[in-house]
Amino acid sequence: EYFITRYAKIRAVDERIINFEFRLGQRIFFEVLAEKDDLQIAIQIFILKARQVGISTEVALFFIHRILFRANTHAIMASAQVEQSNKLNIIIDTVWDRLPFWLAPAKTSTRAKEPKWANGSALSIQAGSQTVGIAQGSTPTCLHLSEVADYDDPIKTIEEGVFPAAHYTPALFFTMEGTGSTASPWQKDKWNEYKANWGKGGKFQTVFIPPCCASDLYPTKDWLRGNPIPEGWHPAIEVLRMKRRGELFVRSTDYLAK
Known about the structure:
Blueprint lengths: L1 H5 L2 E3 L5 E3 L4 H16 L3 E7 L5 H15 L4 E6 L2 H15 L10 E3 L6 E2 L4 E6 L14 E4 L8 H9 L10 E6 L7 H12 L7 E5 L11 H6 L10 H15 L2 H4 L1
Parallel strand pairs: 3-9, 3-10, 4-7, 4-8, 8-9
Antiparallel strand pairs: 1-2, 5-6
């Protein structure tokens, strides 16, 4: 937390480069990560989220921290398509390019998709559209798979490629994430499997961050300034029903209730 709030720079929606500050959804996710770190157990999380909550950004920032300050870290980041994976790499580069010269180890390889550092750490940018399994032939300790519902062949790239390479140790930081895309049934089937088996030897903890937990994002302050709430306005009954459903979900979900 200290590193990413003091040294990590990100690109804001208005194209400025700014210091990272936690959004509400990111803070919730951080607390889930922190609990596992305190227990010194592997981090294995399957997360569903509303768009633009910032989970991919947050994971990328924690990955660059691990890469720079834990020697011999091997990290792999992959989104559904090459173009999306490159965006994850841009987050890493934005931080790296703006760090104080004295803080981090030097880069020993500047290959765009396979940078390496003097402390033995390395990053590999891959994609769900590739024909071979992700992480095939390697043993990474940091894995971030984004937009998993849109992977071309998740059985080959994830189940046959990634899962055998991810060993359960306290060093493992493995997150899979996606939105509600129904491009393939794999994400839904795995989500239901892990949710049903969590606490019974299940591999991943399922975490859902709903839009009601992004109250600092929807609506934005700029939108409200351009669309002020009319005097005497009252929300429609459908909105109130949705509000109550959101409140019930938060109160009945342990990591959100905390």
